Each structure stands twice: as C-alpha cells, then as structure tokens.
Amino acid sequence: MQPSVESLVRLLESYRGRDKVIRTVCYGSQLVGGVLSRKAETDVSSNRLGKRLLLFSAQLSHCRTVLRLFDDLSMLAYSHSYGFGGREEDVGVRWISVLTNVADQLYYPCEHIAWAADAELIKVKSDKWWLFGTVLWGTSLLLGILRSLRVLLLLKKKLKRYERDGAGHSRSQLRRQMRGEVLSILSSMADLSNAIHWMPPGFLWAGRFPNWLVGLMGTISSLIGLIQMNAGHSNETDSTLSTPHSEE
C-alpha cells in the first residue's frame, strides 16, 4: 500500500483525525458548492452541482454535531488534568488557558440542547442555544489567539537568550514552536471570521458572508489543522474542542 494511503488510513482510524478530515471535506464542499451555485444564470448544470455540494456539506456538518454529543467527558477529563495550569511557567498563559477550557466545556451542553431541540427531542427553541454556542466558540477562539500571541512573545524572548548563548538545537526547536503558534493564530482567525458571520445580524459582518467565503475560511482553518497534526504540532485545543457546526 502506498505510504500516503497508509497515512490517510491511520488518520481516519483516530477520532480526531477523522473529524479533521470530515471537517476539511465539509468546508471544501461548501467552498466549491458556493462558487458553482453563483453560476445560476449562466450554467444550470454547475448550479445544480453546487447545490448538491452545499447539501453534502450540511450533512457532514450535522454528522460532526452528532459525534460531538460524546465529547463532554473527554473535555472534562482534559480540563481536570489541566486544572489551574500549575505547570505553566507564565501566569498569563495559565489563566487564558483556564478561561478557554471553561468556554469549551460550556459550549458542548449548549450545542447538545440546540441539537435536541432541532431534532424535536425537547420542546425548547434552538435559536438561543445555537447563539450561546457560537458566542462560546468565538470566545474560545479569541482567547486562543491571545494565548498564542502571549506564547509567541515568550518564545521570542527565549530565542534571543539562546542566540546569545549559542544554543543551535534549542533555537531550531523554538522556531518550529513559533511557526506552530503562527499557524494556530491564522487558523483561529479564519474560524473567528465565520463565528462572527453566524452571530445575529448587525454585529460586525454577521450574515454577510456568501457560502463560498464561509467555505474558504473553514477550509483554510481545516488544512492548517491537518498540517499541524501531520507535523506533530497539534496544540491543546486539538484534544478538546472540535470546531462547531456550520449553520448553513
């Protein structure tokens, strides 16, 4: 079997790896579908294919929402093991991480209630629960960006110190860590742009993204996640929060 195929199989055999692949295909389908559906006036066949891809994307998004019904305990276990971040060297990183864990933990029950309401399992309106979940997701992403910026600042200080000491191996390791944090920032910013899009109309650019732009932002974030996993640079959020639903 080809090494690339073996790598894909190993990725799909793990829950987090499969989720990342589904997420990438989901947003990729929304990107292509959004582009093709814009050709309604000039190409009927392309428009039809675009709508099918958008429906396929919505089904994959729903699949991920259902799978996240079982993520609460793993998130709780991670939050418990992290605690108040006593092993962190920096106080700022510690408390940002604690707040991120709180937002991530609260996100799941909000999404579960919204899903159950849409499935008519409980008699409540789902809109406010989807909104609560989106707010918590956006909060988590914003905190993640702040954390990565803080970590970058600390790594730069360490890098300068190692450059004075002439520690070559340590410098290369720090540069890899810094690249990983930059990728995390780009990924979170792409997701945050979508989170704002799903907020109520009137808040910044809420509701203004076309399907293809939502798909583009999500695809960028998903590909970065796959790159980080492949490079062994997956950060703490990979073992906690899977990015929320697409509300299209």
Q: What is the 3D form? A: globular
| End-to-end CA span | 38 Å
Mean pLDDT: 89
Name the helicity range.
over 70%
Strand-residue proportion = under 5%
- Structural class by helix and strand composition: mainly alpha
What is the N-to-C order of secondary-structure elements (H for helix, E for strand)? HHHHHHHH
Largest sheet: none
> Uncertain regions: pLDDT < 50 for 5+ in a row?
233-243
List the helices and strands and how they pair.
Layout: H1 3-13, H2 15-37, H3 44-67, H4 72-82, H5 91-118, H6 127-165, H7 168-197, H8 211-231
Helix pairs in contact: 1-2, 2-3, 2-8, 4-5, 5-6, 6-7, 7-8
Describe the structure.
The chain is an all-alpha fold and 248 residues long. It has one domain. The chain has eight helices and no strands. The protein has helices spanning 3-13, 15-37, 44-67, 72-82, 91-118, 127-165, 168-197, 211-231. Helix 2 (15-37) packs antiparallel against helix 3 (44-67), helix 5 runs antiparallel to helix 6 (127-165) and helix 7 (168-197) packs antiparallel against helix 8. The radius of gyration is 20 Å and the shape is globular. The two termini are 38 Å apart.
